[in-house]
Amino acid sequence: MNSLELVESFSEFKELKSIDKQTMQHVLEDVFRAMLKKKFNTDEHIDIVVNIDKGDVQIFLNKEIVDDGEVEDPNTEIAYSDAIKIEPDFEIGEEVTEEFKFADFGRRNILSLRQNLISRIMELEKDNLYKVYKERIGEIITGEVYQVWKKEILVLDDEGNELILPKSEQIPSDYFKKGEAIRAVVSKVDMRNSQPTIILSRTAPEFLERLFELEVPEVFDGLITIKRIVREPGERAKVAVESYDDRIDPVGACVGMKGSRIHGIVRELRNENIDVINFTTNSQLFIQRALSPAKISSIEIEEEQKRARVYLRPDQVSLAIGKGGHNIKLAGRLTGYELDVYREGEVDVDDVDLDEFADEIDGWIIDELKAIGCDSAKSVLEIGVHDLVQRTDLEEETIEEVFKILRAEFE
Predict the structure, then answer these.
(1) Contact call for residues 339 and 372 (beta carbons, < 8 A)
(2) Which UniProt keywords apply (predicted)?
(3) Which of 190, 145, 138, 135 is nearest to 165 (CA)?
(4) Of 132, 151, 181, which closes a domain?
(5) Global pTM?
(6) Residue 345 has what DSSP assignment?
(7) What is the pLDDT of residues 302-360, one digit of tens each?
(8) Domain with 60 in it: what CATH number?
């Protein structure tokens, strides 16, 4: 292999892997210099000229002219009689520059040189990929599904780089086939065994935020600011928005005419319900908006404990809690308050407070029931076993046992 073939092959490699010319030039020079230093035990008398565009490497050995018969190291010195054959005007003590031919390396060294170059280029490519994606954390990537496994999906970007979408970062109802286009946000970039690992996510709040930037020009331009986002992926999300321009309705702009803007986002998130609300620093008003679509009767806030007692009419309790308790959980995370729901209205004299059953029902079970707004025996019995299984983390057998205890009170 000659110098032209060697450098051309890596010039092509460079174009495929997007390594800049200057870096490629330094790598070539370093690898050649290391090989020459090993051959001559020094590289102080060597000049290497790399021309990436031409695909050419030239190596020059600088030798000192000494008297005939006094040459101790032919690699660094040349006899006077040999020097004047090159140039008659040379004198003793001057330097002669000779080009080192690739043929003098030997085939084994050429193959070793090529292997070293491949290794260095691969290391550079890994470092470059790591740096590029480290700067893209939080950005949306569109890729192609290359392989679907049980615990993760392998995605290829436009340049053929491998990205990973773990099962834990997929929306529960996500289903992809090989060859499909997929959108996700870059969540994390790690180096594992000297190999960059790029993790994608479709469940991160940043994914929803980037989708709003794509669909809502006012968000992209900074006229509308997304203050907070909380999600139960695939189920429900709450987005608090604010505009510093009084002429812009942030909620209306995000939703769009007849929901035209929000519809694309909902579709991308597998029909995830998205509540867009106006942000405010007024805690009472913010909690009221966060619990939408339920209508709040009154709120008592304990600032030090970051707790709020929310009172609602009986017909509004289930709306505030939401399917599976998602609405109240997200409202609490969005506002930063622990929300306790209470029914407003006349007290049923025949009803019994759940705390009265503390000797028969474990405290943690009572707390779980209170968390979804059930603070009395009748309020639990009204909901029914099936709905309680959906709204709480309690097992069906546990709830049936609770029902037996509560029903016995009224028999």
Answers:
(1) no
(2) Cytoplasm, RNA-binding, Transcription, Transcription antitermination, Transcription regulation, Transcription termination
(3) 145
(4) 132
(5) 0.68
(6) S
(7) 998 899 989 888 778 888 888 888 899 999 999 999 998 887 764 455 678 888 888 88
(8) 3.30.1480
